[in-house]
Write a structure and sequence with these properties.
The chain is mainly α. It has helices at about 5-30, 35-55, 60-80, 85-105, 110-130, 135-160, 165-180. Helix 3 runs antiparallel to helix 4, helix 4 runs parallel beside helix 6 (about 135-160) and helix 5 runs antiparallel to helix 6 (about 135-160).
């Protein structure tokens, strides 16, 4: 008989992730709130983490599934327990991603790519400081610490052997979106 590949076995989880992510906006617009909306918000990323786990073929896939699961947990904890608890969980997920990207770093980089790696995190910290300096001290420190770890994750992804226009650029846009938050 024909062997079922991982994609076919786990397609339901990918579809559930897509439906969870898209339908969340409908639920928000409908005025839902409380625990139900927190679980709904988390569902897209949680099902994506499950999909990644079910499609694992190497240790690298397990690392990515862990990063996604920590992101889902961070989303839930952020909604239910606040910025510091959720942010710390996200930061732990970014630390796992940094470890993964560094273990899979690119052998060589052009000068412009090395300059990007050197400059992105300090520039992100300068921007974060400008945005957070008038906040409460605890929040400003948390924002700077979180920006530091997201900046390092961004440059680690950029310097990894993975496709820059998906992995590196995706991490860069993640950094930019977090600066807006």
């Amino acid at each position: 008989g024909m062997e079922i590949d991982h994609w076919d076995r786990a397609r339901w989880a990918w579809i559930a992730a897509l439906l969870g992510g898209i339908s969340y906006f409908i639920a928000v617009r409908s005025g839902w709130n409380g625990l139900g909306i927190s679980v709904w918000k988390t569902s897209g990323l949680a099902f994506l983490a499950l999909w990644a786990w079910l499609n694992r073929r190497s240790i690298g896939h397990r690392w990515i599934a862990a990063v996604l699961a920590l992101g889902a947990a961070g989303d839930f904890l952020l909604a239910e327990f606040g910025l510091l608890v959720g942010g710390a969980t996200f930061a732990f997920g970014h630390a796992v991603a940094i470890r993964f990207y560094i273990a899979n770093r690119r052998a060589q980089m052009a000068l412009a790519q090395r300059l990007f790696v050197i400059l992105v995190t300090p520039l992100a910290l300068i921007i974060a400081w400008q945005l957070a300096r008038h906040s409460e001290t605890e929040l400003a420190v948390a924002a700077m610490a979180y920006t530091l770890i997201v900046g390092v994750m961004c440059v680690a992804a950029w310097a990894s052997r993975f496709p820059r226009y998906r992995t590196g650029l995706g991490a860069f846009f993640f950094l930019i979106s977090d600066l807006f938050i």
